[in-house]
Design brief:
Strand content: 15-25%
Largest sheet: 7 strands, mixed
Order of helices and strands: EHHEHEHEEEEEEEHHHEEHEEH
Number of helices: 9
Number of domains: 2
Oligomer: single chain
Radius of gyration: 21 Å
Helix content: 25-40%
Number of strands: 14
Low-confidence stretches: none
Structural class: alpha/beta
Strand order of the largest sheet: 2-10-9-8-5-3-4
């Protein structure tokens, strides 16, 4: 069987080694006589899987000791409601949440947060089509906001924070909350600069069904009274992500991905590989008048590369030719159009090179 190069934005490509290991262990995990999907989440077998996954993720991201790692459900979209329900109890009501509006997903987050508090857009790139990140110096922050929300990589528009927003060093500084769903584990980050980091697993960590939340301990225990118990970070933390039945197979798959990342040399090594892959694709697009990418060069995502054909009438022919060559799921997001290549950690450089070769071939023929 020949595997295709899958450029889907998510659920996304998984490392082949991980799929092979999961297949080998599908019916019988380590001579237990059970599949991981059949195990009790409170049994010793799954508890060992859970503990290893948490430990490996803490090591990969150098998560400080005063942060908890929670394994939850509902995806990043659910966290758009869960975050305010857990953080608004820290501040006087009515509360304000500051948002940096950089594209589709920060916009979706604002819509959910507005159900719980006043939303204040302190900086936006909407006027330039979400093709850049507003510089930190331009942010007009509220003096008493509950927190500041950023989406550090916009999957649809292909913009990425290449800096860590400075929120101050004292204990009274407003917490920075980051949706890192589409680039977590792709680059080194200083977790201590954030109050909360959350991410769906289905792009760089594994399969759909698992949401990872990394939260500073002092931000736990402030849930609003109407927050559902399964979404209360304190209850989840107190039960070590076992308050309700966790997404067991998704946690297992994430654990395999974490082990694969460690074998690659960790986050530092994978970041260098991602820099090389992104440069290969962007250089090809920039060298052509046939294709274009509108994002400012200092804000371009290494994970999600939107691009447009000069003649949009050729879009369907382009996609058909890509499909024939095993280059899959290149159609852009429905809100933006064009094309998009998502080149997450698991995408090998050979896949990016195959796409570049096809881009050049298609341009020559048209």
């Amino acid at each position: 069987m020949t595997r295709a190069f899958n450029f889907s934005a998510g659920p996304a490509l998984l490392p082949e080694e991980v799929l092979q290991q999961a297949a080998a262990e599908m019916l019988d995990w380590r001579s237990s006589g059970m599949s991981v999907m059949e195990m009790s989440h409170r049994g010793p077998q799954f508890m060992s899987i859970m503990q290893a996954a948490q430990s490996d993720l803490r090591e990969l991201l150098a998560v400080p000791a005063n942060y908890r790692i929670l394994f939850m459900q509902g995806g990043a979209i659910a966290q758009n409601a869960i975050v305010p329900m857990n953080l608004l109890g820290r501040v006087s009501q009515p509360a304000t949440i500051d948002f940096i509006h950089t594209g589709h997903w920060s916009g979706r987050s604002m819509g959910d947060a507005a159900k719980y508090a006043k939303v204040n857009i302190v900086a936006s790139s909407q006027q330039n089509g979400f093709t850049a990140i507003p510089p930190r110096s331009a942010w007009q922050l509220s003096p008493h906001a509950a927190y500041v929300h950023v989406c550090t990589n916009e999957t649809v528009h292909g913009v990425e924070f290449h800096f860590t927003p400075d929120m101050g060093e004292n204990d009274d500084c407003v917490p920075l909350v980051a949706d890192m769903s589409s680039h977590i584990l792709s680059r080194a980050i200083d977790v201590s600069k954030y109050g909360v980091i959350f991410a769906g697993a289905q792009k760089n960590m594994g399969i759909a069904g698992l949401t990872v939340v990394i939260v500073r301990e002092d931000l736990i225990g402030h849930a609003l009274p109407f927050c559902p118990s399964a979404f209360d970070w304190k209850k989840v933390a107190d039960h070590d992500s076992m308050f309700n039945t966790p997404p067991t197979f998704a946690i297992y798959m994430a654990g395999l991905v974490f082990q694969w990342l460690k074998r690659q040399g960790g986050v530092a090594a994978i970041e260098q590989r991602n820099i090389e892959k992104a440069a290969l694709l962007y250089d090809c697009i920039d060298a052509s008048d046939f294709y274009s990418n509108p994002v400012a060069q200092d804000c371009r995502s290494r994970m999600n590369v939107p691009f447009f054909l000069h003649d949009s009438a050729l879009n369907e022919a382009f996609l058909a030719g890509a499909q024939e060559r095993g280059l899959l799921q290149l159609r852009g997001h429905r809100t933006l159009g064009g094309m998009r290549a998502s080149i997450y950690n698991a995408m090998p450089v050979e896949g990016v090179q195959a796409l570049v070769d096809y881009l050049r071939e298609f341009e020559r023929r048209h």
